[in-house]
Amino acid sequence: MPSANSFTEIGRRPVGAAWTVERRSRLAAHLFTLAFLLAWWAYSLVVPAFVLPGPVPVAVRLFQFFTTYNLYKQALASLEHIAAGIAISFVVGSVLAFLAHYVPVLRLAIHGRLSPFLNSFSGIGWTLLSIVWFGVNEFTIVFAITVVLTPFAIINMREGLETLDRELLEMAASFTRSRWRQFIRIVLPGLVPFVFATLRISFGVSWKVALGAELFGGRTGLGYLFNLAQQNFDVRLILVVIVIIIAFVYGTDRLVFAPLQARFGRAEAGLA
Amino acid sequence: MTIRARLSERAIADGLVVAAIAGWWLLSLQLPEFLMPSPWQVATRLVDLFVTPSLLADVAASAARVVTAVALATILGAILALIPYRWPVADAIVRDRITPFLNSFPSVGWAILAMIWLGTTDAAVLFVEVVILTPFCLINLLEGLKELDGELIEMGASFTRHRGRHFWKLVAPMLLPYVMSAVRIAYGVGWKIALVAELFGVSSGLGYLMLKAEIVSDAATVYATCFAIVLLFIAGEKLIIDPLSRVIAYR
Which of A9, A112, A211 sits opposite B106 (nearest CB)? Predict the structure, then answer.
């Protein structure tokens, strides 16, 4: 409980009472979910189905989605685009951050020129430009995702390199003259939390970029399904894709990244 | 760092920019115009965007939408963040339901739904921008409320029992830096998603301009719109956001 009210309440009452506040809060959240679904259902009765289909038809369609190979395949295609984009941007961003760190002459060029430039261009801008350059294909999608994610990787890895414990580095230097060994034994392990932070942020951002890129520049992926659904006014399919994305993004963040980060690192650098 | 090292750092950084523009220019000589317009063509188009009245109207429409959306999203985010502060029971509703829902909802999804629900209107664009920006503000302000100085709050509680007074004299001023950083983040994201929101059917703004140019393969305008957004973003940050945050820090 972060609020001041509950803080004073905890002070005044026995511990059991605070536990009850938390439990009541969780109950309220479940009721909220229920109320949300009910409101959605009630509203869907009033408006025509092409404006807002109810939760039941959407759930049915969601089930069909995972039993229809063709639709299922699109979700896999999106995953591939995202995985490729995250992997390439992580490597490129890390290399640039390392370069700036170990070759100080390049620092301004990378952190003061390249990274702000990449960061200030919008994802859709990159998508439309890469459509002009490469046409409507897979490469365009992966390129757009990669370019958008790269500055996130640069900024996060820079943060990691700059917060490395200076005393630890000095100690390492007193133990061995081999810079390579210092790098492998001290620098890399120190960077692990930032690697996870980078991947977590990249994952969150990549979905949003991927959808836009696939919508305008792809013939595969969930974004392409958006495109089809929009042309056919198939709001059910649009909602199904949205539900899948929310569930997947939130689920992966909670079930994969949060435990990994809790296990390997404490850094939350640059999450904002 | 010695002066010489600093000078060469500078030279490499600026050299990179010059080399990039030179490389672009050389490429534009080899490639057809619809693929790679020359830097000069893009520069002229960029100037056009800010001097031709009809194009300036599009720029102004986008800017007005971004500013309005940032303001609305900050207000909405503040209201949502304050609900669990006032009623701790609602904590899980805001933190575990509304925040992750808004945060992982794909922005393109909002854009398409808004088009279906609200048609191709200004309201639809504004709705999309507000709903995308709100989670950024909400997360920042929730964080801010978490970091509030507990001892100061207790001291305040010992001075007055009046909730409103307590809030406006203590909580609000302490929250102000977080409001500012929420505005800053929302503003940065706002310009990027303005394009997404405007690409779907509305007939004014830079996103509309960009899509129109894309359809007729007018690459110079696509480039120019991208650069215009970068320029507008930097201008707004330097002219509005930075002075504003200085004023707040000074208090």
Answer: A211
